[in-house]
Write a sequence for this structure.
């Protein structure tokens, strides 16, 4: 044994080949923490000191090669200052350069995932062999940074600037066949043949059949592009990527600039350019928030996994109500491999649900994600029915009928009589109390909420709602089923609107108050879209549907009258009275026409403008800052109240629910991280000023005021 540490071992065989193996103890995956990098320094020094080594194999003993750097260390490191960041990067560059410059050929055997720093380790060796199920990628731009351990230098020189820009700016995980086609790896083999193939490649390089020195010269020299080719490659890419990334995500464009600046340089100078580009991004608020988002997502997934361990598996599901929502739920279940019964009382509703599922499967086939045979097989996982005859073997039923407590109560009572005693019943209600609905069932411990967001196939969040009598087993089974469907479940406690809608409607309340005081709804939309929302509040209300918004608003007003009840009619109610339901009937705050793809396209509607102008009680001008404050403060305060009331367990879960459920701008990190960014004291001062004029919707809680006085934050 040449070296043995907690994460890395280096062994030498009888043929003078050293094998460096990553196997981080007490962890399920390999990560490049600062401690692991320290070990890698020591391991490489030991290899250097060993006499007679003729080749190096780099491999992993875990199911994945290396998933990347240890992201839990990022906030602390990035806050330490630019010089500390540059020092770390230069140190790692030196380490990887040492591997690249070893006086014998080197090969990496890539199994599972090789992402971020793991990919950059592999790029430092001369050759790479990949298991056919493995994936390779540099996802750093998704964290608001760029590949900083040589990825922006080595990858373009291996696969060309165009291809490297696509990988790096997109932050994609790339399958083995694509990596081979691009030239990022030298061979792809069945996973069980990986080590044998890597050793064969190393032996061929040792015999001189493969010129490893030429490969190094290619990776360490300038990019082979003349000035015109560089301009075409980089300037075209910048325009395209800027359009895709948008103004709030600077990392993809900065990565292209780094590659461009380093294109004419040798390795060391290009790496210094990369380091400075990384350090610049690492100190931004966007990076801080996106790293925080990743950590929050990991916490949510960990909690979901803990529930899943306790759950009885859902092998057969059912959905009641076969409209667009029911069809979407059936599609998602069937697509992920869980057979599902789709029941309705009308043939036409069944056909509508099947049509929705067929349409979604057809889109997958058109994009090449499914073959025709796979599409037919998955569609066969949906079994339509008009009766409860086959419900005796169902593990979980999702009730997705009309949003009416009487109808839901009747349906739940019927289905409970048709299923087994352990079957979980879950209501896809968006507003009705789970505790109230539980009054209709004999086994309330088996009943909970399972709130999907529309469209089901696109929206990642599922709220799992625990009623007063809901048992742990029901929650665990529902969380496990949601995860099996490819969704992110977050468990919340019962209250009007649960978490997401309870937080969203104060945002709409702030919007209605703005319109009452003379704000132009089109301008409010533009300001909030510039702030980072995917659509402004007027457009969002049109998409939600005015009937849905009015009903949910009434539930909120009844549940929280002090904050959410208003005298007179608000803007959605005025629209509803005029039968302007939004996209559902082609007119709301905007009018809607079909675009070339048959999708609704909003256009200005003078009738709507006049209608809103007629409900205004004042004619005030608002700055962009005023609009943002009046919209965001109620939403953020309601998120705080949900946390204080125990509706949601942690700041991380609250923020992730808003990002996944209503499109809260990810680069801002969530409502509670947004308060932290403003400063709790500054936010409380802003809210108190607005509350004096606008009332309780804007009033901070006593606990938030105490946090402001004591300098507390939601996130450490």
């Amino acid at each position: 044994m040449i070296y043995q540490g907690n994460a890395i071992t280096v062994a030498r065989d009888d043929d003078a080949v050293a094998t460096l193996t990553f196997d981080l103890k007490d962890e399920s995956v390999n990560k490049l923490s600062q401690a692991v990098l320290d070990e890698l320094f020591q391991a490489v020094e030991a290899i250097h000191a060993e006499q007679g080594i003729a080749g190096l194999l780099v491999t992993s003993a875990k199911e994945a090669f290396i998933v990347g750097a240890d992201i839990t260390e990022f906030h602390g490191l990035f806050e330490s200052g630019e010089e500390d960041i540059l020092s770390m990067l230069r140190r790692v560059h030196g380490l990887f350069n040492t591997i690249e410059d070893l006086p014998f050929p080197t090969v990496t055997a890539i199994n599972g995932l090789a992402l971020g720093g793991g990919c950059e380790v592999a790029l430092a060796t001369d050759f790479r062999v990949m298991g056919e199920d493995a994936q390779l990628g540099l996802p750093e731009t998704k964290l608001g940074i760029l590949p900083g351990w040589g990825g922006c230098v080595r990858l373009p020189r291996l696969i060309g600037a165009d291809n490297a820009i696509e990988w790096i700016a997109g932050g994609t995980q790339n399958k083995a066949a694509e990596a081979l086609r691009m030239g990022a790896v030298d061979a792809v083999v069945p996973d069980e043949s990986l080590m044998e193939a890597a050793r064969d490649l190393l032996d061929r390089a040792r015999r001189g059949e493969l010129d490893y020195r030429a490969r190094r010269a290619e990776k360490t020299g300038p990019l082979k592009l003349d000035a015109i080719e560089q301009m075409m490659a980089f300037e075209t890419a910048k325009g395209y990527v800027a359009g895709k990334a948008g103004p709030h995500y600077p990392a993809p464009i900065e990565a292209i600039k780094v590659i461009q600046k380093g294109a004419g340089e040798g390795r060391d100078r290009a790496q210094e350019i990369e380091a400075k580009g990384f350090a610049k991004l690492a100190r931004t608020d966007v990076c801080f928030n996106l790293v925080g988002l990743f950590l929050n997502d990991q916490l949510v997934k960990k909690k979901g996994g803990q529930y899943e361990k306790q759950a009885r598996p859902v092998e057969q599901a059912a959905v009641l109500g076969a409209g667009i929502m029911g069809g979407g739920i059936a599609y998602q279940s069937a697509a992920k491999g869980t057979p599902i019964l789709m029941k309705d009382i009308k043939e036409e509703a069944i056909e509508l649900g099947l049509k929705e599922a067929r349409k979604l499967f057809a889109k997958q086939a058109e994009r090449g994600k499914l073959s025709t045979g796979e599409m037919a097989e998955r569609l066969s996982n949906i079994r339509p029915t008009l009766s409860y005859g086959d419900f005796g073997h169902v593990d979980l039923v999702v009730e997705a009928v009309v949003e009416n407590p009487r109808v839901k109560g009747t349906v739940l009572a019927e289905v409970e009589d048709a299923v087994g005693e352990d079957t979980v019943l879950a209501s896809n209600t968006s507003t009705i109390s789970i505790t109230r609905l539980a009054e209709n069932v004999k086994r309330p411990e088996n009943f909970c909420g399972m709130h999907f967001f529309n469209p089901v196939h696109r929206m990642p969040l599922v709220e799992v709602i625990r009623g007063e009598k809901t048992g742990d087993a029901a929650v665990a089974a529902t969380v496990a089923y949601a995860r099996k469907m490819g969704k992110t479940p977050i468990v919340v406690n019962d209250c009007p609107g649960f978490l997401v809608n309870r937080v969203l409607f104060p945002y709409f309340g702030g919007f209605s108050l703005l319109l009452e005081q003379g704000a132009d709804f089109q301008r409010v939309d533009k300001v909030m879209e510039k702030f980072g929302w995917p659509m402004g509040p007027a457009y969002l209300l049109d998409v939600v549907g005015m009937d849905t918004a009015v009903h949910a608003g009434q539930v909120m007003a009844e549940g929280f009258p002090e904050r959410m009840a208003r005298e007179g009619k608000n803007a959605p109610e005025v629209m509803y009275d005029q039968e302007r339901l939004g996209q559902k009937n082609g007119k709301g705050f905007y009018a809607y026409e079909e675009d070339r793809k048959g999708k609704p396209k909003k256009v200005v509607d003078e009738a709507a403008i006049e209608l809103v102008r007629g409900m205004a009680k004042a004619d005030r001008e608002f700055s962009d800052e005023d609009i943002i404050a009046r919209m965001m403060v109620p939403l953020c305060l309601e998120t705080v109240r949900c946390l204080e009331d125990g509706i949601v367990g942690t700041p991380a879960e609250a923020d992730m629910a808003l990002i996944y459920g209503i499109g809260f701008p990810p680069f801002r990190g969530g409502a509670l991280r947004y308060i932290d960014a403003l400063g709790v004291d500054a936010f409380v001062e802003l809210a108190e000023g607005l509350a004096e004029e606008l009332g309780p919707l804007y009033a901070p809680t006593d606990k938030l005021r105490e946090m402001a006085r004591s300098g507390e934050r939601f996130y450490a």
User: Anything to note?
Assistant: The CA atoms of residues 159 and 184 lie 6 Å apart. Residues 314-494 form a domain with the Rossmann fold fold (CATH 3.40.50.720). The longest helix spans residues 285-310. The chain has three domains: 3-283, 314-494, 501-710.
